[in-house]
Specification:
heterodimer; A: about 160 residues; 6-stranded mixed sheet; about 25% helix; B: two-stranded antiparallel ribbon; 2 strands
């Protein structure tokens, strides 16, 4: 009901929030950042989660609402350095990215696909339709993520 | 050598003395914590189990820290002695925020009541156990980040 009165940007934000909650539940006390400039100021991801309060693996998620160009979205997220990468789809009908495009060129890593749906009570429900596989990541990114997490307070975290 | 930051900008250097034991304890702590979170989605049928998993997740993570920092395995029958040891490690390494010790001590104090007490546990105690366990994990990864970082293979 509410969905029809929301702008596309509001709907995207709702989906980002749902994806963040999904990752928050699945990981070990992660720090989560919305609209994070990662890995550089010029690039950004919708949701960035760093597991184990910033000491663990890097997870990134991109949100696509409606029937956006998924091939482009997959290509974009494939280039972002992270151990786990996700594409979150909302209102995309039955259009899914091709299986092959989700894999890393060397086979080490697969982009996970999260389906976000709205139930009759206007609640967003998330589930994996493709489970992610871990990507290989150069260790230099740990220093970079440490700098990032110390420079910006997280949007979601468990306070120590 | 890993270094632990302190609030005053001083650094204490740490060598992980038993990375294998530490990794095993971290894995155990993860299992307990994830099982706790899963069970906590539906409180009623798992209540006592949730609280006990919360306690054990903290005990295992503390064992991981102790193994890494001292090279010793946790053998404390009296778990409160483990909290004292963690406090001593934290003070030695100039960690200013000792909130994690208080979360850990609270969980250890409630362990006997949760596991062996005769009375039924109320919801508030179960939810507090979950909260304390998660905050203890957050504290540990924030303040022992450098040493736990290496161990989780991240």
């Amino acid at each position: 009901m509410l969905r029809s009165v929301l702008s596309e940007e509001q709907q995207r934000s709702r989906v980002k929030n749902a994806v963040a909650h999904f990752l928050f539940g699945a990981l070990i006390v992660p720090k989560i950042f919305f609209d994070a400039h990662w890995p550089s100021r010029k690039t950004g991801v919708d949701v960035l989660a760093v597991d184990r309060a910033g000491a663990g693996e890097i997870h990134v998620a991109e949100v696509k609402v409606g029937s956006a160009d998924l091939a482009d979205a997959v290509q974009c997220i494939a280039g972002i350095p992270a151990h786990f990468k996700y594409l979150a789809l909302f209102g995309n009908g039955s259009y899914y990215p091709s299986d092959r495009s989700l894999y890393a060129p060397d086979g080490m890593g697969r982009i996970g696909v999260i389906q976000v749906r709205e139930n009759r009570a206007d609640e967003l429900r998330t589930e994996f339709i493709v489970r992610p596989e871990r990507f290989r990541l150069d260790s230099s990114y740990f220093k970079q993520i440490d700098k990032f997490t110390s420079a910006r307070p997280p949007d979601m975290e468990i306070r120590p | 050598m890993k270094k632990l930051p302190s609030r005053w900008g001083l650094y204490t250097f740490l060598k992980n003395l038993d990375p294998i034991a530490m990794q095993q304890y971290i894995e155990r702590a993860d299992h307990f914590l994830q099982a706790m979170k899963l069970a906590a989605l539906e409180l009623a049928p798992y209540r006592t189990g949730i609280a006990l998993l919360a306690v054990h997740s903290a005990i295992s993570l503390n064992d991981a820290i102790t193994a890494g920092v001292t090279g010793k395995k946790g053998k404390h029958q009296d778990h409160l002695a483990a909290a004292k040891e963690l406090e001593s490690i934290s003070r030695k390494h100039r960690i200013q925020n000792l909130n994690g010790i208080s979360h850990f001590r609270w969980l250890l104090t409630e362990k006997t009541r949760i596991a062996y007490g005769r009375e039924r546990l109320d919801d508030a105690l179960i939810l507090m156990s979950v909260d304390r366990a998660e905050r203890f994990h957050s504290w540990a990864y924030n303040y022992f980040k450098e040493i736990l970082h290496a161990s989780v293979g991240a």
